[in-house]
């Protein structure tokens, strides 16, 4: 199963402040919308609570506290390992979409990273892990917006 991580981070690595994304960049979320369309998303409970159920996506939510979902597109798991076992039976590709603990646990298992870097230093308490040295940058595009950002794709050879 192919594993991709997708995140937006500030220049100083911040991805969140509490349950919120501490910026609003016009256009950047369209990348998320396009890449995750009709895909399985692996997320932690706090990230899931903050984003809600987006249309045309399926979710594997990791939580220790339990979560009941009435939505057929949401599966709940007590651990990442349990989720990966089940998802291997259901799909050939998952996109890890946060939060910080899930990114840290999954970055060394990922095949591809989709990273948007917002060109500001932002105050926050949740950060994205360092890109491992064995990843290679394969695509990069700069965007001018209300806050400029760069979208990159990194892959393991």
TrEMBL record:
One of its GO terms (molecular function) is dihydrofolate reductase activity. Coiled coil: none annotated. SUPFAM superfamilies: Dihydrofolate reductase-like. The keyword rRNA-binding does not apply. GO terms for biological process: dihydrofolate metabolic process; folic acid metabolic process; one-carbon metabolic process; tetrahydrofolate biosynthetic process. Pfam families: DHFR_1. Pathway: Cofactor biosynthesis; tetrahydrofolate biosynthesis; 5,6,7,8-tetrahydrofolate from 7,8-dihydrofolate: step 1/1. The keyword Oxidoreductase applies. Residues 2-156 form the DHFR domain. Its EC number is 1.5.1.3. Keywords: NADP, One-carbon metabolism, Oxidoreductase. It comes from the Bacteria. GO terms for cellular component: cytosol. NCBIfam families: trim_DfrA1_like. Belongs to the dihydrofolate reductase family. Key enzyme in folate metabolism. Catalyzes an essential reaction for de novo glycine and purine synthesis, and for DNA precursor synthesis. This is dihydrofolate reductase. It comes from Desulfotalea psychrophila (strain LSv54 / DSM 12343).
């Amino acid at each position: 199963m192919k594993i991709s991580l997708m995140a937006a981070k500030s220049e100083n690595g911040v991805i969140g402040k509490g349950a919120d994304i501490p910026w609003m960049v016009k256009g950047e979320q369209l990348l998320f919308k396009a890449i995750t369309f009709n895909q399985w998303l692996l997320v932690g409970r706090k990230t899931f609570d903050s984003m809600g159920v987006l249309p045309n996506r399926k979710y594997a939510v990791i939580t220790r506290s339990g979560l009941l979902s009435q939505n057929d597109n949401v599966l709940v798991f007590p651990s990442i390992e349990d989720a990966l076992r089940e998802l291997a039976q259901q799909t050939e590709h998952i996109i890890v979409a946060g939060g910080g603990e899930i990114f840290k646990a999954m970055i060394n298992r990922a095949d591809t990273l989709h990273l948007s870097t917002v060109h500001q230093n932002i105050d926050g308490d949740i950060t994205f892990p360092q890109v491992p040295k064995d990843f290679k940058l394969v695509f990069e595009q700069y965007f001018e917006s209300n806050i400029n950002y760069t979208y990159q794709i990194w892959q393991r050879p």
